[in-house]
Amino acid sequence: MFTLRNFGTRSLKTRIIRNTATIKLPQKALFNNYSRHRYDEIARVAKPAPLWEASAVVDGVIKPLSLKDYISKFLVMIFYPMDWTFVCPTEMVAFSDNIQKFKDINTEVVGISCDSPHSHIAWEGTFIIDDKGILRVAHVNDTQIGRSVNETLRLVEAIQFANKHGEVCPVNWKSGDRTIVPDPKLSKDYFSQI
């Protein structure tokens, strides 16, 4: 069982769990009118993200939630092992404080927690799913290492730029930096200036 949290409120600082849900991942499903790919239960980068459904508590009301709710948007799914541990709350507050930056780039942020001391899969993961439902980033940390909100924003912006322009983003790329045309001859322009 996973707990799903929808960020965007400062209730995290008061340790009030407002938005929680249970996610059920089907073994195989078809994303109707969205993709003709089959969905496996294992998430794979550059493949369609597993279809999931949840019943979420948002502003005190239970509502259904699924990957289909995020069609045409980017989705950052932040997995964390437990509420109110040491590192995770700092990450959740940081993501919550930066929620508008994500919204400004057409990205929603959802937190998912194993939230059980008996859980045998305690890990922290960040998954970025693009606006076509393709898993683009899968990043898993040891529980002692915090995530970077700025790096997550940078990754979403890099994916969006590459999708829009067909160019690739080099090491440490930030929005506005030079990119590389993925062609042996045309890429010489970039490499001749570094």
TrEMBL record:
GO cellular component, one term: cytosol
Pfam families: 1-cysPrx_C (PF10417), AhpC-TSA (PF00578)
One GO MF term attached to the UniProt entry: thioredoxin peroxidase activity
UniProt keyword NADP, yes or no: no
Family annotation (InterPro entries): AhpC/TSA (IPR000866), Peroxiredoxin (IPR050217), Peroxiredoxin_C (IPR019479), Thioredoxin-like_sf (IPR036249), Thioredoxin_domain (IPR013766)
Residue intervals of the Thioredoxin domain: 43-161
UniProt keyword annotation of Oxidoreductase present: yes
Name assigned to this protein: 17413_t:CDS:1
Origin organism lineage: Eukaryota, Fungi, Fungi incertae sedis, Mucoromycota, Glomeromycotina
